[in-house]
Amino acid sequence: KEKIEITKEQQALMKIILDAYNRHQIPQDVAKKLLQDQYSAEENFLLLTEMATSQVQVLVEFTKNIPGFLSLDHEDQIALLKGSAVEAMFLRSAQVFSRKMPKGHTEVLEARIRKSGISEEFMTPMFNFYKSIGELHMVQEEQALLTAITILTPDRPHVKDQHAVERLQESMLDVLRKLCALQHPQEPQYFARLLGRLTELRTLNHYHTEMLTSWRMNDHKFTPLLCEIWDVQ
Ligand SMILES: CCOC(=O)[C@H]1CN(C(=O)c2ccc(F)c(F)c2)CC(C)(C)c2c1[nH]c1ccccc21
User: Fold this and answer.
1) Which residue among 46, 113, 115 is best mutated to probe the pocket of ligand 1, counting the most ligand atoms within 8 A of its Cβ?
2) How far apart are CA 161 and CA 69, in angstroms?
3) Mean pLDDT throughout 154-181?
4) Would you say the C-alpha torsion 172, 177, 182, 184 has a positive or negative sign?
């Protein structure tokens, strides 16, 4: 059995990514608010919009801490952020949703999310994704690296220097591969399963675009930041 060891610089990289990931925790208070009281569909939608807006701000801060990101071409930096924002939102949502909660809270949270003016057809693939993420029982390091890997996807629209992005993504993938082998020695397929979730995540992009159209029909309001990042209006 070959000895897998994470090098000193890979440990440093992982520490930077994990600190950045934890420093910019999504304010859990929105999820708590949703759990606390029964709101109308409009109020739920407003809470979710507030959650999405703060998550975008969190995403930008996290991305700036990815080693090498700020040395990329500036227009490519924007293209990567715009291209990964929705996937990063769903990845973070899955992590928030599959967090250990007291008995029955997850069901209440799911019901409240369902009652927010979003059509049912998008809920099923979304909650299926949350459950498939939950089943992985990812550790923080894996969650943080998976988010960084999602952001550093070379083939986003309008990225000019894809090779530069590929090099950064590959170094993240190498650390994640080793971490999975060390954290889940009994499950040699674990790393592959993680990457499989990224494929499932991409399908949610499509649903999100559809959701936006249906929201625009029922004149839902978004914040300027969401309009910018979600190409709304
Ligand atoms: C982490 C940032 O995520 C969001 O902001 C998501 C949150 N979403 C969740 O399923 C979700 C997961 C766990 C929770 F604890 C919770 F409260 C919500 C997905 C979605 C319903 C599609 C949404 C979000 N923001 C919106 C704004 C307008 C319309 C729809 C959404």
Assistant:
1) 113
2) 12
3) 97
4) positive
**Among 119, 128, 49, 44, residue whose Cα is nearest residue 89:** 49
ipTM of this predicted structure: 0.98
Convert the pLDDT of each residue in 96-107 to its tens digit: 998 888 889 999
What is the Cα–Cα distance from 216 to 218, expressed in whole angstroms? 5
Return the structure tokens found at 3. 């000895």
The mean per-residue pLDDT over the stretch 34-53 comes to 88
Helices (H), the chain: 8-23, 29-36, 41-64, 74-97, 105-114, 120-134, 140-151, 162-183, 190-217, 224-230
Ligand 1: which residue has its CA nearest to atom 31? 48
Digit-coded pLDDT (tens) for 51-71:
999 999 999 999 999 999 999
3 state SS of 5: coil
CA 56/CA 78 separation, integer angstroms: 13
Q: How far is CA 119 from the centre of its chain?
A: 21
The pTM assigned to this predicted structure is 0.94
Mutate to test the pocket of ligand 1, among 29, 48, 101 (most ligand atoms within 8 A of CB): 48
How many whole angstroms separate alpha carbon 200 and alpha carbon 194? 10
